[in-house]
Amino acid sequence: xxxNNYTAYLxxxxxxxxxxxxxxxxxxxxxxxxxxxxxxxSEKENIRLTGTLGIVKVGxxxxxxxxxQELNTIIQELQAVWFRMSDDLENEILDTEKIGHxx
Length: 103
Description:
Blueprint: H1 15-27, E1 31-32, H2 36-44, E2 49-50, H3 52-61, H4 68-80, H5 87-94
Parallel strand pairs: 1-2
């Protein structure tokens, strides 16, 4: 899908982040962003947000991540590449329960 009018965001964001924000606005979708500056812009624009850990959590809840061992492995791999998360957020992800399958 073409992304229109993202150049206004390039003053403070990279092109990928700007594109995600504009596309989320165009589609009334959730933006997946971890960069703090991009998240601030999205919040100002009233765009719903998630991040990498939100995607991992939903992946576990809805079964693409098969079990708690795989979820732990994903968290450890993220931490190994310096992905930052608070202990509270890590515990919240690890406390996630499976709720079903994607339709």
